[in-house]
Every structure is written in C-alpha cells, then in structure tokens.
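can u do me a favor
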C-alpha cells in the first residue's frame, strides 16, 4: 500500500492536533475550598468552589481536567479517583491553586486521619498529582473509607482490576506524619522481628498491583519529601513484573519507622538523587523500628545512583542499600552510605548480576548481635544464600564489587560473611580502610551459612588496597590474590561528605586499578556494560581506572604532556 502524499499527511496531522487542542480547550478545572466552598456549586471557578473531597471524588473527570485545592487550607478525608481516563496528551491533574488569602508558596493539605489514603488512585491512568501536603496522624479506619482497611498512606496508587495503567506522576508532594494508630500506641517489641510487620501502619506513598492481570507502568516520583511515617516511605508492591519503567528522582526521606524505599515485583527503574536518612526510626512508639535505606525483592533492571543513605537503624537488616533475594541486574553506584547499623553490602540468595561500584561507605555495619535487641550482626560485606525460611540455600551468582571506598573507625569490628553457595564473585580496585579489627561471621538467618565452606567457583579477587594485611579476615573463603597495602591519606576520614575521601596519597591510587571484565562463566555482564565513565564526583575515569570511588585527576600540566 502506498503512503499518502506529504500534503495529505500534513492535513491528517493537522486534524489530530486540532482534535487534541479542542479537548484541552474544553477541559474543566474544578476548585475546592473547605470553608468558602459549597458542594452544590459547580466548582468551575474560584468564586464557586466545591467544599469537600467526597464531592470531588464523585466528579466525572475527562482527559485534561484539573482538580485544584485552595492553598493554605486543610481538607479532611480522602480524594478517590477510580477508572479516570487521562491520556498522555491530556493528563488529569490534582494540585493546589493560589488565592487571595494564601501566603506565598503555601500548599493545600489533605488530612487523611481515619482513611486509607489522602489520595487514592484506583485503576487510573495518566494522572498527575503535584504541589500538595498530605498527612494522616492516627484515627484508625472510618467505616466510609475506601481502599485497604489495614493501612494509611499519603498517596495510594492501586491496580486491582485487569488492565494496563500508565503515566502516573507524583511531583512536589510533602507527605508527613502518617500513622494508623493514635499517638501513645506502643508496639510489642516482637513485631520488629517479623519479616515486614503484621500490624496496622502508616506509609508515605504506595503503588500496589493486586491483580495478576493488572500492570502499572511509566511511573514517576520527583521532587517529593516523605517524613515521619510508621513504616515505609516509598513502596512498590506487585507480582513479578507487575510494575514497569519507574523513575524516582530528587526524593528526600526522613525518619521512617520502616525502610526508606522498597520495591517488589518491579522491572525497569532509575532511582537517583535520593536522600534517605533515619530509616528504622525509633522516634515514635508506633513505628516498626527496622529498615534499610532502600531494598529490593524480586526486582530486575534497576539502577540506584547518586544518592545518600544514612543512619539506618534496626535489630536486623537495616543496611544502606540491600538486595533481597530473587533479583537480577541491579546496579548500585555513585552513592554515599554512612552509619547504617546493618551494613553496606548485603546481597541475598538467587540474585544474578548485581553490582556495587564507585560508592563510599563510612562506618557501616556497626550493630552488635545481642546488644539492644539485635538479632543479626552488622556486616560490612555479606554474600548470603538465603531465599526464604523454607527454601533451599541458593547463593548469589555473578556479583560485581569494585571501586568502592570503605572507611571503618577503630571502635567498630568490620564483619564479613560469605555463603558457601555463592558463585561468580568479582572484588577489585576497592579501598578497605579499616582502622580496627575484621572478623568472619555467619549469615544470621534462621539456618545460617555454617559448616565446611568449599572453594567458591569463578572468583576474581585481586588488586584491592588495604590499610593493613589484617583488614580482610584471614579465615574467609575469599582471599585477595594480589593485595595492595598503604594509607591513601583521606582528606577527612570519618566525615560524611564524599569529598572527605579524596586521597592525598595520589600515587598510591591513581591508575593503579585493573580493567573490569566479565566474571568467568558470566555470559551476560551488566546492563549498559562494565565500563563506568565517571567516578562518584563526576570526574572522568581514565582507560586504566584507579583505586576506590574517586578517580584522582592528573594535574593540568601532566595532562598536557600526555
């Protein structure tokens, strides 16, 4: 079949653009004001606003429509949008609008106390939620609330019917103080020993796929803040591959009772410029009090980069970033991990092609088993075979760990655990600056990795810089075949800025690395290849890499003579 001539193609394009513009021109904007509004109004102007979120939930929204809440005002209840038909060209928008009584930059607030969520999107596509403050401090669950009966969220995106739901974007949201129980509720200490908690909790932002025939995709969370919630800050939950193509950037998370960020069943994601501090917080008696800064389960093809993970707390887990079991193709790069009780490097069983590279770790793994209720040792480095309490051990396969800078103060014992089922391990070009002792420990799961450890196949362990020969435990099944020793002379060892770990002993580290090649037996390598173009500070990495996370550049005169 012949293509139409260019003139007809332009004419058809013009009709399409005109149709889109016509839709946008007829889109409605519905205004809400909790004091001056009236649910008998049309809501179509600031002078005739609606009053309640319940009334707004009953609107028949069309592509391009907007629902805007009065700045500086508090709306009690929840906004529920079910099966709303936004499009990529004309999304439905939920936001704040300025008016004469509002102070500059004020946001509208939704108080979801007594409800499942401040905003509940159910089986919705192409919706943007932006410029709002969401909270919900206690209140249990009111009978009229829609959504799950056992949780509270600032925003809950739910896909519980078959379908493909794309294009949800959350931006410039502040989610704070979200709890299910009333202030003063005290959790049984045994609750924090359960896998993910069994009771009612508050969560920041959640994406849930509960139907095996449903899929959420093309999701964005950008420029948001989550603080003081009793469980996880940002959480994705789905059957395998039920959530696809996720971007999370410039997210600030503080003082979550559980993890800062967690994902299950996700395929394809970029998580960058996150600032997660205080996961596993004990500041409120309603908190779960355990959680890593970020962790993944049954997740694939994800990059976690240029982020900060600090001060994770808890009696178990609670690393900066940890990769739980059944994951594939996860890259953790260009991050700062500091003072996390559980550790820095934690990769559990049945994980394939996981990489930690060009990260800085400071005093991670300081937890001591048996102290303050801790039931797991803190571990600086942990390769585990754990795949569930009732499942056989299956070690991680093809794990890349290179060009990390690791500092541990003298009052912390640096603990290492390696599963006998691991296979395919590369450890190269790292700086291990351990001022105190190092020790081999078991894996700390219900059936710990103990017993005679066979030789692990397909290991490349060489060319790492140690402060002293005893920085790596002599009884570990893994040993560096060609170690280097010396003091890199950090600018400010023990600090929590990346720049504190610029080496001043330049000749010891510059161009001293080895090329990173595929692990023997690994036919796949890593997504995007093994070569890294920039270090953690953005410096270009030369053809021959250096040691650690920071590529010390040559002086300008030396570069000119090359």
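np, heres the sequence
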């Amino acid at each position: 079949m012949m293509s139409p001539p260019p003139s007809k193609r332009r004419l058809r394009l013009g009709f399409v653009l005109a149709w889109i513009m016509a839709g946008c021109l007829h889109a409605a904007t519905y205004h809400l004001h909790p004091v001056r509004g009236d649910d008998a109004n049309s809501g179509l102007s600031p002078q005739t606003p609606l009053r309640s979120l319940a009334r707004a939930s009953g609107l028949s929204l069309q592509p391009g429509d907007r629902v805007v809440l009065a700045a500086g005002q508090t709306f009690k209840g929840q906004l529920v949008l079910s099966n709303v038909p936004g499009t990529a060209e004309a999304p439905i928008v939920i936001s704040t609008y300025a008016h004469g009584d509002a102070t500059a930059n004020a946001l509208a607030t939704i108080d979801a106390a007594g409800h499942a969520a401040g905003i509940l999107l159910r089986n919705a596509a192409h919706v943007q939620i932006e410029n709002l403050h969401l909270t919900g401090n206690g209140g249990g669950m009111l009978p009229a609330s829609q959504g799950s009966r056992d949780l509270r969220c600032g925003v809950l995106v739910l896909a519980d019917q078959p379908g493909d739901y794309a294009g949800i974007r959350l931006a410039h949201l502040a989610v704070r103080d979200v709890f299910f129980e009333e202030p003063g509720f005290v959790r049984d200490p045994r609750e924090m020993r359960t896998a993910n908690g069994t009771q009612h909790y508050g969560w920041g932002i959640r994406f849930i796929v509960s139907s095996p025939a449903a899929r959420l995709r093309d999701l964005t969370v950008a420029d948001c803040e989550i603080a003081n919630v009793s469980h996880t800050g940002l959480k994705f939950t789905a059957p395998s591959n039920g959530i696809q193509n996720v971007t999370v950037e410039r997210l600030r998370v503080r003082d979550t009772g559980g993890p800062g960020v967690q994902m299950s069943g996700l395929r394809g994601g970029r998580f960058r410029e996150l600032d997660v501090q205080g996961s596993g917080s004990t500041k409120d008696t309603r908190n779960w009090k355990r959680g890593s800064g970020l962790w993944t389960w049954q997740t694939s093809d994800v990059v976690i980069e240029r982020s900060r993970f600090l001060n994770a707390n808890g009696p178990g887990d609670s690393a900066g970033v940890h990769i739980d079991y059944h994951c594939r193709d996860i890259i953790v790069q260009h991050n700062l991990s500091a003072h996390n009780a559980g550790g820095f490097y934690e990769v559990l069983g049945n994980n394939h092609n996981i990489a930690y590279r060009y990260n800085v770790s400071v005093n991670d793994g300081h937890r001591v088993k048996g102290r303050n209720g801790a039931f797991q040792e803190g571990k600086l480095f942990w390769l585990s075979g754990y795949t569930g309490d009732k499942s056989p051990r299956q070690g991680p396969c093809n794990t890349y760990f290179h060009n990390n800078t690791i500092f541990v103060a003298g009052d912390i014992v640096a603990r290492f655990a390696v599963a006998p089922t691991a296979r395919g391990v590369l450890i190269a070009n790292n700086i291990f600056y351990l001022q105190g002792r190092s020790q081999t420990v078991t894996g700390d799961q219900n059936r710990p990795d103990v017993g005679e450890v066979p030789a692990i196949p397909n290991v490349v362990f060489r060319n790492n810089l140690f402060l002293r020969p005893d920085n790596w435990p002599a009884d570990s099944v893994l040993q560096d075949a060609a170690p280097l020793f010396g003091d890199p002379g950090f600018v400010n060892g023990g600090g929590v800025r990346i720049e504190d770990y610029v080496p001043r002993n330049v000749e010891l580290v510059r161009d001293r690395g080895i090329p990173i090649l595929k692990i023997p037996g690994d036919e796949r390598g890593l997504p995007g290849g093994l070569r890294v173009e920039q270090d953690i500070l953005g410096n270009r990495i030369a053809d021959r890499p250096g040691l650690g996370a920071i590529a010390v550049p040559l002086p300008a005169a030396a570069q000119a003579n090359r």
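The two ends are 59 Å apart (CA to CA). hope that helps!!
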